Amino acid sequence: MANEARAFSPERPEDRRFMAAAIRFAARHAGRTGTNPAVGTLIVRDDRDGRGPRIVGRGVTALGGRPHAEAGALAEAGDLARGATAYVTLEPCAHHGRTPPCAEALVAAGIARVVSAAADPDMRVDGKGHAMLIAGGVEVTPRVMAAEAARGIEGYLTRHRRGRPGITLKLALSRDGRIGIRGGGQVKITGPVSDSQTHLVRARHDAILVGAGTALEDDPRLDCRLPGMADRSPARIILDPNLRVSPEMTVAKTARNVSTMIATFETADPERRAALAAAGVSFIACVADPETGRVALPELLEDLAATGISSILVEGGAMIAESFLQADLVDRLILVTGPEAIGAAGIAAPIDVDAARRRYALLRQDVFGADAWYEFSCGAA
Fold it and tell me: What note does UniProt attach to the cofactor annotation (predicted)?
């Protein structure tokens, strides 16, 4: 490690400005890059002609995950890449796949210096990309705005570090800390601006998860309904161990348009399973936690990670939310509070803003109309 540290070059005054721009550029394809993270790359050249450094190439991980951001930026820069600096939001890959390693491509293009942000925990990379660059004569400055870059690819990092997808739990709370009325169907708690923000959050996740209770009571669509973003809807996962979901429900009827998975026990009704499968629903086997009898979440998440899912937005009811919180499986918590009270008949939220402030680090606080939006890092990633 000491030899590696000596090989790194120090951060320069302009590095944070360009890395911040690369992080913003990476967000363009958030949630749309398959099993790969959404990475941004800027190629910056300074010819010492008085104009100062300028961006000559930009790249973001392509839709579906290939080609990588470095390839796009190098293609746009062309010959101007020689002698330039590359700002990359994640350590360049070092492994041969369908394409050569990005670190190798940066060396071949004549890049003089690479500034990277987040470290890549993928065992095929994990320091090897930096080592390949240094061996090729490239200066390397790592971990510039690493925490900021990591927030945009939390799911990918969690999948490689912990063997499960990154989990965001989102709850809408009334003024008196309720999330709905049992048996009362959908209860409107937040306003249109907060609702639009929720759809934007959905678009940035690989999948959205609810329990069978929410599915049966609300018959939700669980999609992204922002104008022009219908194709950004995440996959849908329903925890339904006893297979109560009906083929007549919205999630089943639209399963051929939006990927829909039901996590269920192997012993679930075979006829209903066949009817749902005919509608386009797929299934993932789950087992019961021996203590609670509920779905064993760690094992389920491990299986979902094996399918390539990196990030899941949990929008279930109180029981699902409490299960994820108690199992310490929440990486980011979003609480949105509305202005109206529901009353004693309402379902109490498993956590409120005050409790979240005591337990977690507040990342963001906004006001959307009459609603307050809070995001917390739960420190699990």
Answer: Binds 1 zinc ion.
- Work out the percent of the chain whose per-residue pLDDT is above 70: 96
Number of domains in the chain: 2
Taking only Cα atoms into account, the Rg of the chain, rounded to an integer number of angstroms, comes to 23
> Residue 171 pLDDT > 90, yes or no?
yes
Residue 273 has pLDDT above 80, yes or no: yes
Say if strands 332-337 and 166-173 run parallel, antiparallel, or are unpaired.
parallel
Domain, as residue range, for 34:
2-152
Q: Are residues 241 and 144 in the same domain?
A: no
**Most distant pair of Cα atoms in the chain: their distance:** 74
Beta-bridge mates of residue 172 = 336
pLDDT in tens, 216-226: 988 999 999 88
Active site residue 70: yes
Q: Which of 113, 132, 152 is the last residue of a domain?
A: 152
The three-state secondary structure class of 188 is: coil
Among candidate residues 4, 11, 14, 70, the one labeled active-site is 70
What DSSP string runs through 271-327? Answer: HHHHHHHHTT-EEEE--B-TTT-SB-HHHHHHHHHHTT--EEEE---HHHHHHHHHT
* Residues 297 and 200 placed together within one structural domain of the fold: yes
Domain boundary (122, 152, 182) is at 152
- Using CA atoms, how far apart are residues 241 and 211, in angstroms rounded to an integer? 9
Tell me, yes or no, whether 349 and 311 share the same domain.
Answer: yes
Task: Compute the half-sphere exposure of residue 228: CA atoms within 13 Å on the CB side of its CA.
Answer: 0
Please give the Cα distance from 256 to 83 (Å, whole number).
49
Instruction: State residue 381's pLDDT score.
Output: 40
In this structure, what CATH number is given to the domain that contains residue 351?
Answer: 3.40.430.10
For the cut 60, the answer to whether the pLDDT of residue 265 exceeds it is yes
Note whether 140 and 25 are same-domain residues: yes
